[in-house]
């Protein structure tokens, strides 16, 4: 079985896994972990789209 993911989906997976790890290692309670993980994931996705648009505008 082979996964054929493009750059966008690989970035989303990286954001998801990174957010889970950051939530687990930085917070004490489950509620804080979930909220912080969701916050980090949102920040990753916003940064992904923001950097993508900047690259698109600079590339032309």
Task: Give the amount of beta strand, in percent.
Answer: under 5%
Helix/sheet category: mainly alpha
Tally the beta strands.
0
Separation, N- and C-terminal Cα atoms: 37 Å
The dominant shape is flat
Q: What's the rounded overall pLDDT mean? A: 94
- The string of secondary-structure elements, in order, is HH
Radius of gyration: 14 Å
Helix tally? 2
Helix content: over 70%
Sheet bearing the most strands, described?
A: none
The unreliable regions are none
What report would you give on this structure?
- Helix 1 (7-26) runs antiparallel to helix 2 (30-59).
- The chain contains 2 helices and no strands.
- It is mostly helical.
- It has a domain at 28-60.
Summarize the structure.
Helix content is 83%, strand content 0%. By secondary structure, it is an all-alpha fold. It has a domain at 28-60.
Give the tags.
single chain, 60 residues, mainly alpha, flat
Secondary structure topology:
Layout: H1 7-26, H2 30-59
């Amino acid at each position: 079985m082979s996964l054929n993911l493009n750059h966008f989906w690989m970035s989303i997976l990286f954001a998801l896994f990174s957010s889970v790890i950051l939530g687990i290692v930085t917070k004490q309670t489950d509620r804080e972990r979930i909220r912080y993980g969701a916050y980090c994931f949102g920040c990753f996705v916003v940064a992904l789209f923001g950097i993508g648009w900047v690259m698109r505008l600079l590339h032309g």
